[in-house]
Amino acid sequence: MVTHHPQKGVELYREDEAFVVLVDLPGFDREDVELRWRDRRLHVEAIHREPGERTKVFHRSLGLPRPVRDDEITATLADGVLEVRLPIADRERDGRRIDIG
Predict the structure, then answer these.
(1) Is residue 2 in some structural domain?
(2) Predicted model pTM
């Protein structure tokens, strides 16, 4: 399986009804990475320590242009690439038109 590596370390795109975030994290293990969704932002933090070597630290926060269904966010880490899928919420959640009577 060939994994797509983002050119600038982080890539955000829309695929069907979800946003996809790719983060290049070579040398990081799953246990090194912490993901949080808060205030319509995806927070990625990673810390990797090896004996006798420097500590590698990564931190990035991404804002998304539309609300997502936060209870359906999924993430995988394979071949040094973190992939996070964030399903886009229905438009009704963004608001609605109110008729004046």
Answers:
(1) no
(2) 0.80
